[in-house]
Design brief:
Elements lengths: L2 E5 L17 H10 L8 E4 L5 H4 L5 H10 L6 E2 L5 E2 L3 H21 L4 E4 L21 H13 L4 E5 L6 H7 L5 E8 L17 E6 L5 H19 L3 E6 L16 H18 L4 E5 L5 H16 L2
Parallel strand pairs: 1-2, 1-5, 5-10, 6-7, 6-9, 7-8, 9-10
Antiparallel strand pairs: 3-4
Helix pairs in contact: 1-9, 4-5, 7-8, 8-9
């Protein structure tokens, strides 16, 4: 089976102020990288619009309506100090949710071996009732609930290697043993959560990394904490919150990974997907703010997904 790629032009219309790190050029850089000849076999599909009802499996209706009401008719609106909405942001985030849910459908229904979703805005900082950290809704959490509701998945694992801790995903699944959340991230760093002692109902596995560490510490975190947790959990689906801001070029953090580390980590998670979840693996773009580091890292990640 093929590796499928979802993206959509609407993601470029989620606008942020000049100088904001989460900008449309991120997707343009990814698009150029994946237009190279080596990615000719990618199954490229335009992302569908999401079902608003699927958001309500994760976020309460009052919060959803508050985000909708905050979308400006023109110009930009600030949801918090970092999080901005523009007139097309609702459509963009709903299409990001649509792509994440469609990716889940694809791997459960045999249309793809695995899927990468190149969308924005990102999602992993969005808590149950709080939009923050560039994120409006939590796409990975919505996709996990979609897998449970539509496909009967009993156990879903979310592995988050974004350099910032996914406080939103942890908040949503804090007391839910049907979802395993594993995160490697720099600490201390925004948003200030993600200590090893934060374990939820035994389903939260945090592996914080000290500033100025790199490949050795990242790989050890996966080998010693994340991968054993996956093996013990035996998930029916693995979702990656695939942020690439732990790359050494990234301006927002101080972890010194290279694209080879993302290649390796992808391979490790593919092995677990083969072992436990009939190869079902969905990857959702989160952070990554240096355009060259992002492009190289996504190319390594998708290239490894395509090797099957």
């Amino acid at each position: 089976m093929v590796t499928r790629l979802y993206t959509h032009p609407i993601y470029l219309e989620h606008l942020t102020p000049p100088g904001h790190p989460e900008r449309p050029d991120r997707l343009r850089a990814i698009s150029r990288a994946l237009d190279e000849e080596g990615f000719a076999a990618l199954d490229r599909v335009e992302a569908p619009m999401g079902d608003e009802q699927s958001i309500l499996r994760v976020h309460p209706e009052q919060f959803v309506e508050s985000v909708r009401a905050a979308i400006p008719q023109a110009g930009l609106a600030s949801l918090d100090a970092d999080t901005v909405a523009s007139p097309k942001s609702w459509q963009a985030t709903l299409t990001a949710i649509g792509a994440a849910n469609a990716a889940v459908d694809d791997v459960f229904e045999g249309r793809a071996a695995n899927v990468f979703v190149a969308s924005r805005p990102p999602g992993h900082h969005a808590e149950k009732t709080t939009a923050m950290g560039f994120c409006l809704f939590n796409h990975a959490a919505i996709a996990a609930r979609h897998a449970q509701a539509k496909h009967g998945a009993e156990r879903v694992a979310i592995v988050d290697w974004d350099v910032h801790h996914g406080n939103g995903t942890q908040d949503i699944f804090w007391d839910d043993p049907t979802v395993l959340y594993c995160s490697t991230h720099q600490m201390p760093l925004y948003p200030g959560t993600g200590a090893k002692t934060e374990t939820g109902a035994g389903n939260i596995v945090n592996a914080p990394l000290a500033p100025q560490t790199g490949s050795e510490q990242f790989r050890d975190a996966l080998l010693s904490r994340v991968l054993p947790s996956l093996d013990a959990f035996c998930p029916d689906l693995i979702i990656i919150s695939a942020g690439f801001d732990a790359h050494h070029r990234d301006p927002l953090a101080e972890i010194n990974l290279t694209e080879d580390d993302f290649d390796w980590a992808t391979g490790q998670l593919m092995e677990r997907a083969a072992r436990h979840s009939s190869n079902r693996l969905v990857s959702l773009l989160e952070g990554g703010y240096d355009l060259q580091g992002l492009a190289f890292s996504v190319a390594a990640h998708v290239g490894r997904l395509m090797k099957g």
